[in-house]
Amino acid sequence: MTDKLNMLFTKQMVATLALLLVCTTASAQFNVLKLAKKVTEFFDSMAVKGIDPRYIEVPERPWQVVLRGNMNQSIVSMHTEGSIEGTDYSAQPYLKTRPSRYVGLWVAYRGHGVGFTRNVGGDKGSYLTVGAMARAYGYNVRIHTFESSTPRLDLDSDIVPEQHKEKWDAVQLITPIKVRTVFADGYYLFNNRHFSYAAAYKQSVLQKRSAGSLMAGAMFYYGRIDYASHVNGDLIYLMHGLGRVKLWQGSIGVGYAYNWVPTRGLLLNAMVMPMFTFVNKIKVYGYGTNVEQLMDEPIFKDDNVDDETWDKWFYGNLRIAPMGDRTFNSGMTVNLDARVSVSYNFGRYFIGAFGQFTNMRYSHHSSHGYLNDWFINTSFGLRL
Questions:
Q1: Residue 21 pLDDT more than 90?
Q2: Which residues contact residue 227 at a Cβ distance below 8 angstroms, ignoring those fewer than 6 apart?
Q3: Integer Cα distance of 103 and 120 in angstroms
Q4: Strands 56-57 and 125-133: what pairing?
Q5: How would you classify residue 50: left for phi > 0, otherwise alpha for psi between -120 and 50, otherwise beta?
Q6: Are 139 and 186 in contact (CB under 8 A)?
Q7: Which of 13, 86, 287, 313 is the most buried (most CB within 10 A)?
Q8: Tens digits of per-residue pLDDT, 327-362?
Q9: Once rounded to an integer, what is the mean pLDDT over residues 260-264?
Q10: What value, to the nearest 5°, has the Cα angle with vertex 172 and ends 168 and 175?
Q11: What is the pTM of this model?
Q12: Whole-angstrom distance, CA of residue 47 vs CA of residue 62
């Protein structure tokens, strides 16, 4: 009898817990749906609040699904001078990636969304973008990571015989150079009643008449170049111990943007903004190498040793060791941010294209260089 009562009690407890779980899950789902509804209602109200419908049209369909294509190229140029065994040299490692091609998706609600693209050609890498463009404000964050094992290495030195210079030009690194860039920018429009930046770059609204606006903006840029590995010790030695570089740049500015609507559906945009750079610093990481010790070994200059054996010996014994880091502030400067875009809307569909270019410079003792990063985005989208 007791066993039956215990079994009945256990079944009742299980049923009660299951009911509580179902109720809790249903309540959580209801709360999530309720929150999502409030967020979308907020975006809907912000999209139409304060605009002049003669100039800006808000589509009835709020969702956007966009197929994106991206082409980009990153260039890292370095220069250093020094002396090896009394012979002066100048080394100019020049990393120029092949123009890479990406495809991906962007999903957004009233211009607020997220996108991801993957590499389909060129050097390996990926893009992650997060952004929003509303009536009066907007922001965008773009993270680009790539690597390359085939930098072009120019050496102007007597230590490298003329017949071997081509080998340096076509150097193949065992461990690739890794580069990551993070670009973030934001803006505020003063004439957001008649002018829409989102119409030019996100197509979340439509610009019906030509208009322009004064705008305030801020920009942040971060870049990292890293080739610090044992097997890259020879490159680090030529770069006077420089094996890793981090760069930061922060700017604010005031500029002007204009949307030209020559015919219904077609929109051309141009924006120019002088920017005051108040953060411009570089952090360099130094490394020691055992290259000079290896140069004293008999095998180093033994012409009877074949290339395969020599490479196995040299790179198998090459070592680096961290020696510390230093941060340099380059001071305040004035830069210029300029952008152009073109887009066309036809019914629920739209196409667009725009581009951007970024330049960042650094200096460390007798080494200096720059990082250039440009991209062109194309898009084909559907409103839902």
A1: no
A2: 173, 175, 176, 177, 178, 235, 236, 243, 244
A3: 7
A4: unpaired
A5: left
A6: yes
A7: 287
A8: 877 667 777 788 899 999 998 999 999 887 776 666
A9: 95
A10: 130
A11: 0.73
A12: 10
- Per-residue pLDDT tens over the stretch 203-240: 889 999 999 999 999 999 898 889 999 999 988 887 77
Q: Locate tokens 């009233």: which residue? A: 110
Please report, as a single letter, which amino acid is at residue 73: Q
Identify the residue whose tokens are 């120029």. 96
Task: At 329, list the tokens.
Answer: 């502030």
- pLDDT score recorded for residue 82: 67
3-state secondary structure the chain: CHHHHHHHHHHHHHHHHHHHHHHHHHHHHHHHHHHHHHHHHHHHHHHHCCCCCCCEECCCCCEEEEEEEEEEEEEEEEEEEEEECCEEEEEEEEEECCCEEEEEEEEEECCEEEEEEEEEECCCEEEEEEEEECCCEEEEEEEEEEEECCCEEEEEECCCCHHHHHHHHCCCCCCCEEEEEEEEEEEEECCCCCCCHHHHHCCCCEECCCEEEEEEEEEEEEEEEECCCHHHHHHHHHCCCEEEEEEEEEEEEEEEEEEEEEECCEEEEEEEEEEEEEEEEEEEEEEEECHHHHHCCHHHHCCCCCHHHHHHHHHHHCCEEEEEEEEEECCCEEEEEEEEEEEEEECCEEEEEEEEEEEEEEEECCEEEEEEEEEEEEEEEEEC
User: Which pLDDT belongs to residue 312?
Assistant: 93
Q: pLDDT tens digits for 80-131?
A: 676 656 666 666 666 666 677 888 998 999 888 888 887 787 666 777 788 8
Measured from the Cβ of residue 286, the count of other Cβ atoms closer than 10 Å reads 20
Averaged pLDDT for residues 253-263: 96
Supply the Cα-derived Rg of the chain in whole angstroms: 29
Residue with tokens 């090896």: 84
Q: In angstroms, rounded to a whole number, what is the distance separating the alpha carbons of residues 71 and 48?
A: 34
Q: Please say whether the beta carbons of 97 and 123 come within 8 A.
A: yes
